[in-house]
Amino acid sequence: MPRGVTEISQSVFDLHMIIFWICVAIGVVVFGVMFWSIFHHRQSRGAQAHHFHENTLVEIIWTLVPFAILIAMAIPATATLVKMYDPSDADIDIQVTGYQWKWRYQYLGEDVDFFSNTTTPKEQINNESEKGENYLLEVDNPLVIPAGKKIRFLITSVDVIHSWWVPAFAVKKDAIPGFINESWTNVPEPGIYRGQCTELCGTYHGFMPIVVDVRPQAEYELWLAEMKNIKAQEIASAKQSISMEELMSKGEAVYKTACAACHQINGEGIPNVFPAIKGSSIATGDISQHIDIVLNGKAGSAMQAFREQLSAVDLAAVITYERNAWGNDSGDKVEPAAIDELKMAAKQ
Amino acid sequence: MNTMAKVEHTEHHGPAAGLTRWLYTTNHKDIGTLYLWFSFAMFLTGGCMALMIRAELFQPGLQLIQPEFFNQMTTMHGLIMVFGAVMPAFVGLANWMLPMMVGAPDMALPRMNNWSFWILPFAFAMMLSTLFMEGGAPNFGWTFYAPLSTTYAPPSVTYFIFAVHMMGISSIMGAINIIATILNMRAPGMTMMKLPLFVWTWLITAFLLIAVMPVLAGVVTMMLMDIHFGTSFFNAAGGGDPVLFQHIFWFFGHPEVYIMILPAFGIVSEIIPTFARKRLFGYSSMVYATSSIAFLSFIVWVHHMFTVGLPLMGELFFMYATMLIAVPTGVKVFNWVATMFRGSMTFETPMLFAIAFVVLFTIGGFSGLMLAIAPADFQYHDTYFVVAHFHYVLVPGAVFAIMAGVYYWLPKWTGHYYPETMGKVHFWCSFIGVNLTFFPMHFIGLAGMPRRIPDYALQFADFNMVASIGAFIFGFSQLIFLVLIIKTIRGGSPATSEVWDEPHGLEWTIPSPAPYHTFSTPPEVK
Amino acid sequence: MKPVKSAQQKNRSMVRTLILSCVLMFGFGFALVPLYDVFCRITGLNGKVLNTGPNAPTGSDKNRTIRVQMIAVNNESMPWEFRALSPMVTVYPGESKQAAYLAHNPTSEKMVAQAIPSVSPSEAAQYLHKVNCFCFDRQPLDSLETREMPLLFVIDPELPTYISTITLSYTLFDITSTKAAESDLLSKSAQPNSTGRNTL
Fewest beta carbons less than 10 Å away: which of A101, B195, B390, B476? Predict the structure, then answer.
């Protein structure tokens, strides 16, 4: 078990080791007696069976002794648990939302909000290329937090139950649709920490990793400013027109992270489970209907609303890509500005 | 089976010939045999699924099966092993042995007995048929947490619900039969505190079944209503709560875990005294320990859900209650060890399995105690550490005890001794296979590998490979068991009525093989 | 002396008892649903907010302030724009506070939503009294309509002193296709179907 980097994770580790050694000690005694009798009291060694079969005193003793050991275990366990439930105010509150199959992080009061997708390429998963060092534990946008600050996580989900776990922090909390759970950490050491979703959440449960990038306070502030800057740029660039080539190449990249898990790289989907986009009536038909389904999702299906998940440019790019890739050659081009207008209309 | 039928034909009122004998039988021995064969078939089916899982996990990356199918395999493996293999095996043993142990001519309700068996093949046929349905089989884990199993489930979930209903009805009927047999059909002089421990543990198990199987039926009914009739028991949108599902499920689920282990305690408590040639140490404390485990099982269910976000007081209460279970369980282990102490032991196959049970079950108990510690559980929960824990208590726990029981009573059933060397080979292969499979899972879990994932990060690779190799050894060594049983049924050196050296119990006073009808006139128990 | 019952009679009465207890346990499974709600109300488990209506406590405690964080979550495939007007408010315990969420339906269809509240830490749930809340009712919105959805709450001065921040989250669910929403879809006016009714 990782010792972890936070005070809590270290006391959990110590607790784990204490209990482990107590169990080992009990095991040695019990199995010791057992194997000793197996060795000495066997018929082949001429052992005669004795005829005792009850001894109230011994029985009472071996009921009370384990009880005492348990109390000894319960004391440090209770202390650690109480420490975990520290309700004092946090320096930063982050809302963590589970989606099938990605995480969303929203910095409350900071207007910073992004999704974190796995970036492990399909080729590595399908054994067509060498697996990277952080195979299945890498994401495009890690959660960035400052070192030495108390961070509170408000954990929820929008679809099924997920569970947010970073072993190095000893933080594991279920993300439950409709309900909010909280947990906190305070990481003294900057570094990159990795975890995974730990509650079965559907097909790609094994492919929604968590990466937390802990930085010194100053670097964290720089990052925060940069995030806001990028967002401002995104808004600005949404007003500009982009060339068809650029839209297509950007669209392909977005498609791979956001769409390919279900609709597949080749756009053919999975029969009876995820519909094909290649040659579909939506992707080759009315463009406004296509935009509508990508932005707003489809009720009662696995198709999510991507309005919030992607920027206007990315949305325009991916819709353009879907309308022109795999022989869907409609020639349609979706302008980021048009998408931006739709997005802004909602925000007025 | 033919030979067996022939042997029994010589008795008066022998069984009917042909297939109808099995279809219409109300004889407890026939039904016991049916249960055991059915459970063995399910054990192999669920085992094949486990091997598929282990084959996929042999190396990182997706090689053989896709994630969607992997989830279906984990789900079906769990359901089949729990409801199809372990529980029917215990019911089968109960059918064979309980009437013989309490000195009754048959089960109390023979026709109901027939029913409760014959529902099962249909339930499982229905469940397995979902594998071939559009949208695939249930893929939400054997714990079927809502809303993954309601709003997000494949259409086959409805068949799954009905299959669970049928299994539930079968188990409840079995339990009613067992309670009635034990309470009403005992031979004169067979007082409660003279009952063999296997009977005692089954009596308590049967009460647990009566108490919790209806709750399971209730929870799947609520799912059915949520899916098809627009209710919102588990859907937050309509004011329901997905966590409520987990509470109800585990209110069933935790006693269910003990349903699968208490009869195993009983079997081991029969076997160890026989081969230590000494009476069981602390009989009455065994009975009290079993009862208190059964009682505690109702107030600890939340330890399966420490991470759902509970208030501090809740976590503390369930942590303490769970830790308490270690006390009666410890008493049992100490009693077994004390029974062996100063005995005169021999190590035939049943004894080997029983000793392995004591050791490996205790290891599973230790990891259980560790899981009970709530703050540490945050690190263990839903990782391979949990997988290691419950496989340790269920495979070398429940399954080994069942195998021990089969070896122990096989000569009584067939009238032949099984080939001892072959039995020992089977034991050692299984023992090595089991430990190779499940011991490394402790390490993988502590290193941080979540359960129910079809592919994993590179640092988990080595131990996963070891576990997969172990799984194949364990899986294929069960074929030895199959061959051994068939061989023993067909022939072998004839068994005496005592079979072993001065064993205790009424079942050893009747000839081997046990005649089709036994104890038509109740024996006198002094 | 009691007449001796035959084995069969004894079996029959036992079966009756046992089947009855099964039926009872089946009922108990369902009884767990309301029991669980009671349990939640007592312990605040899961942050379920159940206390509603204008029976709020009076008398405010000016000695401390409580930060109330307002969070908006859209359940999957809920395309509405949904956010708190002021994500963070500071209140005295006992003080009535008005807050609001903004919702906008960007689709071309009329839709109906239901907001589900949740409070963290869960211990605080029983001290957060909602006098009036948009989550009491279904919320229909016409295509492209925007509405401010009000909320009036009071924090009980009894709130344990170790709690200084309360998070109130609303998850918006799309319930357009459910039976309950049919009447909302038919009604022409897009007025909220009632205010201040305590139906939850």
Answer: B476
